[in-house]
Amino acid sequence: MEHKTKSILDGESTLYFIKSITPKGGIMKKVLFTMFVVLAAAFMLYGIADAISGVCSGCHTMHNSQDGAAVNGSGPADILLKSDCMGCHTTASAVGPRVDNATLLSAGSFADAFVTSDTNTHNVEDLVGFNAGGADDILTSNDPPGGSAAVLTKFSGANQLKCAGSNGCHGSHDSKATSWAGIQGYHHAGGSIYKFLEVATDNEGAGTAVAGTKDSTYESGGATASKHNIYVSDAATGISAFCNNCHDVFHGAATTDLTTNGLWNRHPTDISIATYLGASGVTVDYVNNPFAFTAAYATTLSTTSATGYDATNGYVMCLSCHRAHASEYADLLRFNYASQSAGGGGTTGCLGCHVNQR
Q: Around Cβ 38, how many Cβ atoms within 10 Å?
């Protein structure tokens, strides 16, 4: 007798056949128990799929010494690492996403081909000197645009933006001042933390994990209906709430962001596009105008399936217009703002959502 069961691991549906030889002999029970253990283990591994795994010596060195020579010529590094962020994310053998990728990833790219001006990029201290002539490692100001007094105080003086740490984006926002320490533990964390990002008040202290699901290829070559991130719109865990760590004056749905006449004086985030613009004619565009979704709805979506837009889903967020690292356009925009023209019939950029202005 044959019984059929399905596995839904990793979004796939696979049919297995289990042959029962004799129930009295207990073979069927043993087979089912074995399969349960295997499936349980697989689900556990799937749950931590975003965590780094592999040979420890690929990243760490115990004493910065091997075969009579220093592993890292600059000396022992924090957390016993062999290299810093740039060493692992800008090399041809990088196992993680390359931040200087030749084609744009979901966060953009710090490569010279894209970053031709300081206005195109986040100026990150860790990047100094990593590109031959890129504008991305030139500091023009330490003040985050749209930062409140508390944020500006934190970035005053020589306190430049870093990849991680108390003045960084990834990892912990606590008192750890360097990117090395700020990312400590996160590379082995579970998959519930979207790209190792945290929401923290005024970019301080222990934060709340950002929700979302990343495309397995980081949208290399451009996002499509079958290859895209899933962003969350939520005041506590959404991607805009994360941007709010440093740019807290620039966005939000609070009344302080409205004029006395009830009209927006800052572009809002985390609001339903349908509520303000209607559902008809809005363009679903994964590259130029990606949407965010409520946390509950986002859990029903897949990075390999098209996400639609209707009257109840689809929220504007910071990344609907901007890229996180850098882009080929001013202000880290996904599109050329200067080319947006009302009445021109365009469907990207501002006109992707503002259909009445096309």
A: 11
